[in-house]
Design a protein that fits this description.
This protein has helices spanning about 1-30, 35-65, 120-140, 145-160, 170-175, 180-195, 220-235, 240-250, 260-275, 280-285, 290-295, 300-315, 320-330, 340-360, and strands spanning about 70-75, 80-85, 90-95, 100-105. The protein is built from 14 helices and 4 strands. Helices cover about 65% and strands about 5% of the residues. It starts with a helix and ends in a 12-residue tail after the last helix. By secondary structure, the chain is an alpha+beta fold. It is globular. Helix 3 (about 120-140) packs antiparallel against helix 5 (about 170-175), helix 12 (about 300-315) packs antiparallel against helix 13 (about 320-330) and helix 13 (about 320-330) runs antiparallel to helix 14 (about 340-360). It has a 4-stranded antiparallel β-sheet, with helices on both faces.
Length: about 375
């Protein structure tokens, strides 16, 4: 239902803006004020302005975040990502997150209940789109059709990100504003991402991060994020009995999660079933799931692990499993953050041991790749 509502909102916004633009274009052509060349240039400008507005949007998050005490962690446009290191260096990586065109992650100022700043940081992208569109609109429209296209795309970004829908900026602000518990969970998420960027893994995080925060006023994707933190801690500690129980609890609630979390949960469950219950009837359905298939195409260590688990335990192809784990290790330096690289390498080593036990002397040793 939420997905349908988001689509309807996007269609409505595009229809309104497109109708306005079409009316303006028709009037201009009718009065002989707009030539064919101008129309062609305007059409060609749309993809350029689209990318420009994405950059403006993410830069807005960065600017207003810096003004309210945040620090840069990463800046991503499509799959092009720049990561700020502890030593001050900025490293370029490739990383794609389904359902997002860009992302600006920042580390928050210290948490202060009731006074934690999050609204300007979250609304910074929408404000930047509106400010730039207003400036260009005042200076160049209605005389310039390409400038009008820039303004229209800016308004589209502002409205589709500002009107609460799915897990966009507006929805995140609304959730974080709904209670002190949700505001804290938002802080916990951005702070944990920052610590992961520094190379700290689940066992290094403060114990308080894993203390269950009440679902007040209702469960949100902030609560789901904390649930994934708890799940990650259990796996890193190799508390696999409780890990399985927690995984099944999350699985029962998957329909309530945002699409991004649903995909990650499906891949996590697929890996677990392949390594523990390779005959389970859910495996073919998960393996052939369209969203899972698309996600597994991304060059990530975790994806090679899932594929190795499937080919090793379900298909019985130890040679392919070994090759996939070798590929996974080679992606160490391309992980989205240092913690993800460390945790994935640990999981690869865990999977190697399981494969060795399964195939015994037939298992092909995976090449050692130095961290």
């Amino acid at each position: 239902m939420k997905k349908v509502m988001k689509q309807l909102i996007n269609i409505l916004v595009m229809a309104i803006i497109g109708g306005f633009f079409g009316y303006y274009l028709g009037m201009g052509i009718g009065r002989g004020e707009i030539s064919g060349t101008v129309i062609i240039l305007t059409v060609l400008s749309f993809p350029v302005w689209f990318v420009a507005q994405i950059i403006i949007h993410e830069a807005g998050h960065a600017l207003f975040g810096l003004l309210t005490g945040y620090r840069m962690v990463s800046f991503r446009i499509f799959s092009f990502m720049w990561v700020w290191q502890k030593d001050g260096k900025i490293v370029f990586r490739r990383h794609k997150i389904p359902g997002t065109l860009g992302q600006c992650l920042m580390s928050p100022p210290p948490y202060n209940e009731g006074k934690f700043p999050f609204r300007l940081y979250l609304m910074g992208g929408v404000l930047a789109n509106l400010i730039f569109s207003l400036i260009i609109g005042i200076l160049f429209t209605p005389g310039s059709l390409p400038a009008t296209a820039f303004v229209i795309i800016g308004l589209f970004f502002a409205l589709t990100n500002g009107i609460p829908s799915g897990f966009n900026d507006g929805a995140t602000i609304r959730m974080a504003s709904s209670s002190k518990e949700q505001a804290y969970l938002f802080y916990l998420q951005v702070e944990a991402n920052y610590l992961f960027n520094l190379g700290k893994t689940y066992v290094d995080l403060p114990e308080s991060y894993f203390d269950l925060v009440p679902e007040i006023p209702k469960r949100t994707y902030f609560n789901d994020y904390q649930a994934f933190l708890q799940l990650g801690l259990l796996f890193e500690q190799k508390n696999l009995v409780e890990y399985e129980e927690r995984l099944e609890e999350l699985w029962d609630r998957q329909d309530e999660m945002i699409p991004l979390y649903q995909i990650e949960l499906k891949k996590t469950m697929l890996t677990w079933l392949c390594t523990n219950e390779p005959e389970d009837e859910w495996i073919p359905q998960l393996w052939n799931d369209k969203a899972v298939k698309t996600s597994l195409k991304q060059p990530r260590m975790g994806n090679r692990i899932t594929e190795a688990a499937y080919y090793g335990f379900v298909e019985g192809n130890q040679e392919k499993a070994a090759a996939l784990l070798t590929d996974g290790k080679a992606l160490y330096d391309k992980a989205p953050n240092l913690a993800a690289a460390k945790l994935s390498l640990d999981e690869i080593e865990w999977l190697e041991q399981l494969l060795k036990k399964s195939f015994q002397d037939e298992y092909l040793e995976v090449e050692e790749v130095t961290e």
